[in-house]
Amino acid sequence: MDLVKSILEDDQKKADLSKSTKVHKDVELEIDLGTLLASDYNVLDAKTLKSQSDLYLKNLTRDNVQLLVNKIWELPIERVDEAVVASLPKPTYLLPRSRVIPKPKPLTKWQQFAKEKGIQTKKKGRSKLKWDEELKKWIPTYGYKRAKTQEQKEWLIEAKDNDNPTDDPFTKAKTAKQERQSKNELQRLRNIARAKKVKLPKVGLPTVAKEHFPNSQQLSEALTIARTSTASVGKFQSRLPKEKDAKGIAKEVSGIKRKRKAPPLNTTEEKRRNQGLVDNVLKSSTKILRDDYSTGVAEIKQSTTRGSKKRKGALKNNKNKTAKKPKAGKGKRDLHKKIGGRKRR
After folding, report:
1. CB-based contacts of 264, cutoff 8 Å, min separation 6
2. Each residue's pLDDT tens digit, 305-318
């Protein structure tokens, strides 16, 4: 009996294995082979999910993957390098992106110029080392140790006829190199500002195409900054006829004296200015200051009214009653103490 039972169990296992590729679903899966996505809309067995969650999810995943693999085997298949490959169709399901599609990086001024003129740079395949006939050794064409090799080559500078003999040619060459580096750095910052659409400083030409030519305000600001860029802040610089400082430039250029407002011409204008100042204080966003200001005004008004009432009452009483003369000391004054008074002769 045991032998028969074991044989039956083996046959049942073989039958289960042969039927493992066939999976039954009440609602067929929506399969997108382009993205290898299978969407299962069947109702979950809540009771089995609570009692045997791991086993239930494992079997469910296995059945869905089996259905997806069955669909893949229905596609046209070919063998490439001892591997079976299936050509997937175009995807129909649009997968959402977590981030925005990156925009293409804008070209720099040189890249745009090279594209218009058809200039092609041959960076790929360029050797890092080249043979130098003067030094008789291999030197790097770019990168590490290139500057040192250039110093070894340029240890002697030929003097020209129009050069000043007192000038140091090495210092002059170093200064020119620093100026080129500063110019390249300025151009790099301009490219970044143009790519990010950031407004450039007020001096210089803007890089936006539609604002290629500066307007009168920009020219006025550039002229004012150039005139005040001296040690005396433009005090001894000559002005053009009818030249005036640019509007709002005194806040940005240190040293320029701001024009003071003229005093009020009459009481009406003075009252209007004071009223505007009080309105600005009262409209402040600081609540504590506004509360303190209002309570302080109320206390001041109350104190003034009380003081005026007391003074008025005292004046009325003084008018009705005659004031008494102060009494004398009755001869008890100490002469040794310094007390003010009329000196006796």
Report:
1. 270, 273
2. 555 555 555 555 55
